[in-house]
Specification:
It contains two helices and 18 strands. It is mainly beta. Strand 7 and strand 8 form a beta hairpin. The longest helix is centred in the C-terminal third of the chain and has 14 residues. The two termini are 14 Å apart. Pfam families: PQQ_2. This is Pyrrolo-quinoline quinone repeat domain-containing protein. It comes from Mucor flavus.
Length: 265
């Protein structure tokens, strides 16, 4: 039986808890979030001072983290998704993702606002060399996309309620990769899209409903690890500016491959 389908041992059960280390004021731009050994830490980017610590689960060998534009940290690991307050480390909600097993979890959240080029022409001199102005357009409610063991779950970011689930045909028990594409009214697409790569397949889903827009098997290899990473020009630009992204550092997938090798040995 795969390790990610086994029931938890009594020793693995530990309640999440958070600890605030400082009463000094800090802003969202001061915070660096890191995760290790079942815990999430917020440290100050200027000097490395610990701001808070939140214990998720010591069984979570790899914790994926995503900071939303509404000051929440979404963390996935050991078959669960947690939502944490960015400023305090307090756990807002936990979705235990029933039926998803106890493996690594990929996470991403839809944005609350999208930047579109403004139709207004800049009035400053030499406007032709200025960067374009942008208007912020408010999107629908934010949705967290959590994936594990070849399955996808959409979670309401505010409540932690499960909105929909999708079992990727051909995804098997692989750790899916996620890319979220905002809506584009100018292109006639009023809904946000979620691209999922799992095994040898890629799926395009409506983020709000989970409706499958299309799916395609991109690989026909008979011998492979069946793990996939995804990128678009825009997602790569964002990754370059942030210097890191989950799909460029697939540590969770490496752990899954190591687990498979251990089972064969």
């Amino acid at each position: 039986m795969p390790l990610w389908n086994k029931e938890k041992n009594e020793d693995d059960k530990s309640e999440p808890e958070s600890t605030l280390f400082t009463t000094d004021k800090f802003s969202r731009t001061d915070i660096l979030i890191c995760a290790s050994n079942g815990c999430i830490y917020a440290i100050h980017k200027q000097d490395g001072t610990k701001l808070w610590k939140t214990k998720i689960d010591r069984s979570a060998a790899v914790i994926s983290i995503f900071v939303t534009d509404s000051d929440k940290v979404v963390a996935g690991g050991f078959g669960k998704t947690h939502c944490i307050d960015l400023m305090t480390g307090n756990i807002i909600w936990t979705n235990k993702m029933p039926g998803f097993g106890y493996a690594e979890v990929s996470v991403a959240t839809t944005p609350s606002k999208i930047l579109y080029p403004s139709t207004a022409v800049p009035t400053a001199e030499r406007s032709d060399i200025l960067p374009p102005h942008y208007d912020q357009v408010t999107e629908d409610k934010q949705i967290t996309i959590s994936c594990s063991a070849g399955k996808v779950m959409a979670i309401d970011l505010e409540s932690g309620e499960t909105l929909w689930t999708y079992n990727c045909p051909g995804g098997w028990y692989n750790l899916p990769a996620i890319i979220i594409e905002p809506s584009n009214w100018e292109a006639g697409r009023p809904h946000q899209l979620v691209y999922i790569g799992s095994g040898k397949w890629v799926y395009c889903l409506n983020a709000s409903t989970g409706h499958v827009i299309w799916s395609v098997q991109v690989s026909t290899a008979k011998l492979s690890t069946e793990y996939m990473t995804l990128a678009t020009p825009w997602s790569s630009r964002l990754a370059a500016e942030s210097h890191s992204a989950f799909n460029q550092n697939p540590s969770g997938q490496i752990v899954a491959v190591q687990r498979g090798r251990q089972q064969l040995s």
